[in-house]
């Protein structure tokens, strides 16, 4: 396990590093309440993807990284903290493979720190703001609470809604980090993550579950050069539900 200090107060981002001989470095970023090791290790060592130096990085507030309470956990703050960690790791012009909220952060990272990202593979990533929605398990449900409500009772209600698989990593997150990240993910960025993605001039792949049907304005993404791939036999966690298709399409996106 490796780490880098990413805040003036000394908070550290940590990652598991898989050595490799092939350039460029690959960076894996998890979704809200997740951790890159449990979600991405099998993919990083899959025969179609193994060989490159791979950083399975946990965002600040999640997994094995520190959980400071004096950070606002906007998408921009997440991206800037990852940028500090990548520079500490001497990882430039990387391939970033990012799931869900991690995909939104990866788009912001590529827009704000273009020297660090050469190619993107977004795995059912958030592209647009969403309205807070009580009783939903994801960011919109968490964002429906005030921070005080979430720290008091809301996190226990969320635990019961998300189920044991998601909660196994969500329980590792700092509660303030989880709530603030969800609020800012639901709120999105200005310009939106979608608009930032459309403006990037790097190879971009977007993997989505086939069963969900087309993305909003999927034709617009394709027209802007984004390779959109419907992946069969999977839900939101594409890399876990259909690892073979995930590895194949990710490898194609990084070819």
Automatic annotation (TrEMBL):
<dbReference type="Pfam" id="PF00561">
    <property type="entry name" value="Abhydrolase_1"/>
</dbReference>
<keyword id="KW-0378">Hydrolase</keyword>
<feature type="domain" description="AB hydrolase-1">
    <location>
        <begin position="27"/>
        <end position="130"/>
    </location>
</feature>
<protein>
    <submittedName>
        <fullName>Alpha/beta fold hydrolase</fullName>
    </submittedName>
</protein>
<dbReference type="InterPro" id="IPR000073">
    <property type="entry name" value="AB_hydrolase_1"/>
</dbReference>
<dbReference type="GO" id="GO:0016787">
    <property type="term" value="F:hydrolase activity"/>
</dbReference>
<dbReference type="InterPro" id="IPR029058">
    <property type="entry name" value="AB_hydrolase_fold"/>
</dbReference>
